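Model it.
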Amino acid sequence: MPNGNLDSWLHHESRNLSFRQRLDIAIDVANALDYLHHQLQTPIVHGDLKPSNVLLDDDMIAHVGDFGLAKLFPEADDMLSSDQTSSTLMMGSIGYVAPEYGLGGSMWPQGDVYSYGILFLEMFTGKRPTEHMFPDGLSLHSFSKMALPERVMEIADSNLVGESGEAINNIANHGDVEGRMQHCLASIARIGVARSEESPGDRMDIKDVVMELNIIKEVFLGVGIHGERHIRMQLPAEGTSQLGGD
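Modeled.
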């Protein structure tokens, strides 16, 4: 791909992705997984989702690549039948592979959701899940979870902090861009944490991720029903001052 892979953009000093670009890429990847899991006659589990397998084209549109570990999954009616799932002894990549795979679990869509949650947190914190700063007992998941909700800006990628002023001209309704970014980052951290829970049953479906990310995008850009509603909530009530007072 002309623009290489996501890993080279997240962890290269001479490259940087804006908040909007990261959000668009996250939506692209979620849409790709939704297609694999829900829109094919026989669903496909990717099995090795990570930044280096997310490829970027000329327009920075993300495409999921490397299906070397991919497996066909039973039809939806059979998804709860454990004896029909596709078992595998092959592992994904350290840091991104779902915990149940290490216990001999079968490959299934919720494993991809876990990998997506970790990738998602990495995109907005700038930290790999294998960083040395995560000793025994701490992980990118728990690191992000501890920051919710008030300390989310402390764990955000340093390239995103302070970006709001530079990005203001690209946003339809300026308003409090920094406040909107903080609100969106908190929502993003919650999504990443919720999708990377240890128990597969606690992870939401990828189609719900697509819906939530599009809402976050509307809020950040200040457009659509959700974006305009958020801006109205930020405005002072009629007859009051932004600074308060009698």
